[in-house]
Design a protein that fits this description.
Elements (H helix, E strand, L loop, with lengths): L14 H31 L1 H6 L5 H17 L1 H15 L1 H19 L5 H4 L2 H31 L5 H29 L3 H5 L4 H4 L1 H12 L6 H9 L6 H7 L3 H34 L4 H29 L2 H26 L1 H9 L2 E5 L14 H12 L3 E5 L4 E4 L2 E2 L5 H10 L11 H22 L2 H8 L5 H17 L2 H12 L6 H18 L11
Parallel strand pairs: 1-2
Antiparallel strand pairs: 1-3, 3-4
Helix pairs in contact: 1-3, 1-5, 1-7, 1-8, 1-11, 1-14, 3-7, 3-22, 3-23, 4-5, 4-7, 4-22, 5-7, 5-11, 7-8, 7-22, 8-15, 8-21, 14-15, 14-16, 14-20, 14-22, 14-24, 15-20, 16-17, 16-20, 16-24
Length: 533
């Protein structure tokens, strides 16, 4: 690598240029994450599982659908390596033109795949292949957009300007909900369930056209131009990311201290909230989506606020405070949300707890058929979304509110739950309870804003310009792809195994604790709040 490092912020863009840079980059990010998130949004509603994966076990279908969601994230680091290399060698602009094109085509393809009933195992295979393509594209998108905006930002303003990229990720989630709800309204009932749900995927072609039109107007990053003019472009940015002095440590801190922590909080704030309301608290599907979308929309301001604040107080302080507050408030927030979403179900679970006991109770969410009676009971309650506790006894039994239930047939258990006050029908909360849910969502999105808002600027500042695209993208996508992308699957699995609807939050809590320790100990700032490389 050249010994002379290209200068950041030597030439400041005009106000008109910076507005175009931010709007084109942020809108492109919105559209690209929309493409990625409509799969997750529809997976939470069960449509993806029912359509593309084998029938016979609803829990298994849900887990396989979330596994498909996770696969896309699993390939993001490979995309980060590929497109990071191209971004450092060929430039920021054209690299993320390629990524958004790949994403748009892959997303539209998901909407065109025939169902499992029509083509058998070819359906989930094609879904996984297109999810891989989406993951590769997304692996190159975020780093390019974040760096492009950071390298155009005037000195002391990069936290504020890059916060719109962070808000764009939330915008993609909101747009996915808005488009899905719009198509559901137009294509209501059987039309939506049979084929209408495919329209949001195909709609991505229109979003791709808008994104390409805007991004083609952009010029190359001034920092990359300066590097190219000075002959400072890295010859092999992938290799130099691992050999540049101190860079391996920086990437480790970015991975375990920043990316992992922000990812689990973000996905908890978005997908875990939606899944929790729809599945566990049994809200009517459209109601849950509207509430989650409204909460996310109101929460967008947190990302911009804390990005702006990081220009004043430094990047590290908001992130550390966000981690600490998450450890303290995560479980209380979700308990408030659950009690407000379905008070009757929450009261029934407290007043008449379900206890399942037996000699083994070896319940497996992946099994098409459970092996013993105790496991079948756990499977029944898990599918119903009813919390339970397990005990070891010589004989299999179940009690509801301390009353033994002799007949373990599903119809008899349905009746016993109803008699104990469990109303398992879909509910629509009243206005007051919806307000409480929105406050809870705002609280959890504030935690995400604290830990995510400053991150694009922080990561851009951590790494030398010549290897910035590669060095930023690899740890970011490893952290968000594996720690965050697998969160819905892991948390759902924990809930299915334990019977505790809140148990999946322990995954978020544990990763946040790890991130807090790494950030406090190894992320260094100088007295002016600047990241020490």
């Amino acid at each position: 690598m050249a010994t002379v490092v290209a200068r950041d912020h030597d030439v400041e863009p005009s106000k008109a240029e910076i507005r175009l840079v931010i709007s084109a980059s942020a809108l492109g990010t919105v559209f690209e994450w929309y493409d990625f998130f409509i799969y997750g949004t529809l997976a939470a509603s069960g449509i993806i599982g029912r359509t593309f994966f084998p029938a016979g076990n609803e829990t298994l279908q849900t887990l396989l659908a979330w596994a498909g969601f996770a696969v896309g994230f699993g390939f993001r680091p490979i995309g980060a390596v590929l497109f990071g290399y191209l971004g450092d060698r060929l430039g920021r602009k054209y690299t993320f033109l390629v990524t958004i094109t790949l994403m748009g085509i892959a997303t539209a393809g998901v909407g065109l795949i025939p169902s499992y009933d029509a083509i058998g195992m070819a359906a989930p295979i094609l879904v996984l292949l297109l999810r891989i393509a989406q993951g590769l594209a997304l692996g190159g998108e975020y780093g390019g957009a974040a760096i492009y905006v950071a390298e155009h930002s005037p000195r002391g303003r990069s936290g504020f300007y890059t916060s719109f990229i962070q808000a764009g990720v939330v915008g993609g989630f909101i747009l996915s909900l808005a488009v899905i709800l719009s198509f559901k309204t137009v294509l209501a009932g059987p039309a939506w369930d049979s084929w209408g749900w495919r329209a949001p995927f195909i709609f991505s072609i229109a979003l791709l056209a808008v994104s390409l039109w805007m991004r083609l107007k952009l010029s190359e990053s001034p920092v990359f131009k300066a590097m190219r003019a000075a002959g400072e472009v890295a010859h092999n940015p992938l290799r130099e990311s691992f050999t540049y002095p101190g860079n391996l440590k920086r990437m480790a801190v970015a991975l375990f201290g920043i990316a992992a922590g922000l990812a689990v909080i973000w996905y908890t704030a978005m997908f875990s909230v939606l899944s929790f309301l729809q599945t566990t608290m049994r809200l009517e599907e459209t109601t849950a989506q509207l509430i989650t979308g409204a909460g996310a929309l109101m929460g967008v301001a947190w990302f911009v606020l804390f990005g702006w604040l990081s220009d004043l107080v430094g990047r590290k302080k908001p992130i550390v405070i966000g981690y600490i507050m998450t450890l303290i408030l995560l479980f209380p927030i979700f308990h408030v949300m659950g009690a407000a979403a379905n008070p009757g179900l929450a009261r029934a679970a407290e007043r008449a707890p379900v206890v399942v006991s037996g000699p083994h109770c070896a319940y497996s969410p992946f099994a098409a058929k459970q092996t013993d009676e105790c496991a079948r009971l756990l499977d029944y309650f898990s599918k119903k979304g009813v919390s339970y506790t397990k005990e070891v006894t010589p004989v299999t039994s179940v009690s509801i509110g301390g009353v033994p239930i002799a007949d373990h047939a599903p119809a008899a258990l349905d009746k016993a739950l109803a008699n104990a006050g469990y109303d398992l029908s879909r509910v629509k909360p009243g206005a007051g309870n919806i307000a409480l849910i929105l406050i809870a969502i705002l609280a959890v999105t504030a935690l995400s804003g604290l830990t995510y808002g400053p991150v694009a600027a922080l990561l851009s500042e951590m790494f030398p310009p010549a290897i910035r695209y590669s060095s930023l993208s690899m740890p970011y996508h490893l952290g968000t792809g594996y720690f965050g992308g697998f969160l819905p699957f892991i948390s759902q699995y924990i809930v299915a195994r334990t019977g505790d609807p809140f148990a999946g939050l322990w995954y978020t809590w544990g990763i946040t604790l790890l991130a807090l320790i790494v950030t406090v100990l190894w992320l260094k700032e100088d007295r002016h709040g600047r990241i020490v490389a």
